[in-house]
Amino acid sequence: MKTLLLCAAIATAVAACATTKSPTGRTQYIGAVSQEQLNQLGARAFAEVKAKKAQTTDARQRTYVGCVVNTLVAQLPAQWRTTGWEYAVFVDKEPNAFALPGGKVGVYTGIFTVAKNQDQLAAVIAHEIGHVISRHHEERITNQMRTETGLGLISALLGARYGEGVAQTTNQLGGMAAQGLFVLPNSRTQESEADVVGQQLMAQAGFDPRAAVNLWQNMIAANGSGPPQWLSTHPDPNSRLKEMNNRATGLMPVYQQARASGHAPKCG
């Protein structure tokens, strides 16, 4: 009976999925989870990372990252500014960063080896925030449900929603949240879209959009022949550089207007 009820609940959730348009106009399938559930998953995944990784004790690094995050968030649409964003800087030599639903931003100290200034750091963080405001996490979960490849995550979601009847799976929510929202790679389509959204966001906030190109060049140089493993699902580096460079040229008026309007970040 429990299995039948679970299947029925999954079928109901999948049936409730809807299509929408992403910030770049791409058709997305979303709606398998509510925004509240998505935020809870993001918070749980963030808590899991914080439990496993040490955070920096360098106040300057925390202040630096916080300044960039807050400057970018201030330029988000109203529905995203009210999320209550928080950030953490983790001690890890990998040049990595992430953002999760519910307004959670994580930065690894290794990112400072490739992000040489505030504009390049903004390029990283804006890209990750771009995933959130483009609803990529929700899209991934919905696609997992639709293709029945995320049964563990589905069970966890249903456990959180329906309570003690599926308490055993509810206990696994933290791990599944991290798996579904952080560990699994994004698709190349989502990565390209986050590039577009992130570069637009950084320009609006008064960060130089050309820095995204410089950041990627630093990434490649730091790893020798190619991008680091965590970028393995990102678009082809050469094509990405060309697209970013062309986009930066088009965004210069946005950047210049932001600066003229008083948006001149001084984060470090």
Features:
268 residues, mainly alpha, 3-stranded mixed sheet, two-stranded antiparallel ribbon
Q: Can you walk through the features of this model?
A:
With about 270 residues, this protein is mainly alpha-helical. The protein has one domain. The chain is about 60% helix and about 10% strand. It is built from 12 helices and 5 strands. Strands 3-5-4 form a 3-stranded mixed β-sheet, with helices on both faces. Helix 2 packs across helix 9, helix 7 crosses helix 9 and helix 10 packs parallel to helix 12. The longest helix has 24 residues. The protein is globular. About 40% of the residues are buried.
How is the secondary structure organized here?
Blueprint: H1 2-15, E1 18-21, E2 27-30, H2 35-52, H3 59-73, H4 78-81, E3 86-90, E4 97-100, E5 104-108, H5 118-133, H6 136-147, H7 151-162, H8 167-170, H9 173-183, H10 188-204, H11 211-223, H12 237-260
Helix pairs in contact: 2-9, 3-5, 5-10, 5-11, 7-9, 10-12, 11-12
